[in-house]
Design brief:
136 residues, alpha/beta, Oxidized Rhodanese, domain 1, 4-stranded parallel beta sheet, 7 helices, globular
Length: 136
């Protein structure tokens, strides 16, 4: 009987370890959001969008309402919503670009729980014929 209980305990501990590892991995990643989902969130004013392409690119073209991560990086907490469940979406150049990760990791580290990634980036946004803004 004792061996059975010990085996069960080991199985439970190992199972919890696996679950904890999976959950920890999820906290570091940001799921993808589609252009349509992002457009809907923008239309409903329910998203904070972060452009991680750098100031020169941001000046040339960015998703309307996006925050320039390069200039907001040190004060990101000042420009993100107080609600930690609010939708935060980061994007960079396109599907091959990984620069968005610095913004998603920063938001997650600040306690935001609904952080997503527009994997098509600004190139996909433009290719879809979506409107962009310029900055001075």
């Amino acid at each position: 009987m004792r061996r059975s209980n010990a085996s069960s305990l080991v199985a439970v501990v190992l199972g919890l370890s696996v679950v904890a590892s999976v959950m920890a991995g999820k906290k570091e990643s940001a799921p993808d959001i589609s252009i349509g989902e992002l457009k809907a969130a923008i239309a409903e004013n329910k998203v904070t969008v972060i452009d991680v392409n750098g100031t020169d690119s941001f000046k040339e073209a960015h998703i309307p309402g996006a925050i320039n991560y390069e200039t907001a990086n040190k004060s990101l907490s000042d420009v993100l919503p107080k609600d930690k469940d609010a939708l935060i979406v980061a994007y960079c150049g396109g599907p091959e670009c990984g620069a968005y990760k610095s913004a998603t990791k920063a938001a997650i580290a600040m306690g935001y729980t609904n952080v997503k990634h527009l994997s098509v980036g600004i190139s996909g946004w433009k290719s879809a014929g979506e409107k962009t803004d310029k900055a001075s």
